[in-house]
Amino acid sequence: MAIERELKLALPGDLPAARADALIAHLDRLPGSDARGERHLVNRYFDTPYLALAGAKAALRLRYVARDGHAGQWLQTLKSVGEARDGLHVRHEWEQAVHGEALELAPLIAACDVPATAALLRDEGAKVVAQFETNFVRRLSRYVAGDGTVVEIAFDRGEVAVQADGQRHTEPLIEVELELLDAPDDDRDAQGERILQALAQDLRAVLPELHSDNVSKAQRGYRLRQKVLGG
């Protein structure tokens, strides 16, 4: 099991391309930052018809990652209940490679060491179906602070989509995610989280439209689903 610590910053869906490019240029010049290229991510989120996972504040995702010059890879991810405050998301996460375009729930249940979450997936897993999708291009950078703290900076641009009655309903998605990958002493003194906040402040100086966001991509999908389907 991993504990994910991630600071999420959102941007308006109609942000002009030139403003986004200014942020990318700043990231390229940021001392301690190393550009890691772009990836195209397609993410399908699954739940039961009566949204049992959402009710338990869990998320189940199948992701396809494509990079230029590399074969694409399918991954499945389970995230359990966590907390979000001032854009900082802290939650349990389990991620595994799968053989193809389908969930493989047995190994995911075996890996999940939160009993209530494992039981939920064991009881409800056979009933899950795809509910919505996020589709975006992710531009990655890795930032290393002077104390050795490592942060992944992801700039995502794309859409959230729900398929209903033969139509694809979409909303724009544009976010910056700052994920704490490594910190000295397992971040016991919360220095890593302070570095996340300092990085966010630096990015806001370049792009004031950035604002802390407690809404995950999964929550965005559920909200669009409710808007489209009415329940």
UniProtKB/TrEMBL annotation:
GO molecular function, one term: metal ion binding
Pfam families: CYTH
Sequence ranges assigned to domain CYTH in this UniProt record: 2-228
Organism: Pandoraea oxalativorans
Protein name (record): CYTH domain-containing protein
Gene3D superfamilies: Hypothetical Protein Pfu-838710-001
Lineage start: Bacteria, Pseudomonadati, Pseudomonadota, Betaproteobacteria, Burkholderiales
Alphabetical list of SMART domains matching this protein: CYTH
Signal sequence, start to end: none
InterPro entries in the record: CYTH-like_dom_sf, CYTH_domain, YgiF
Superkingdom as given in the UniProt entry: Bacteria
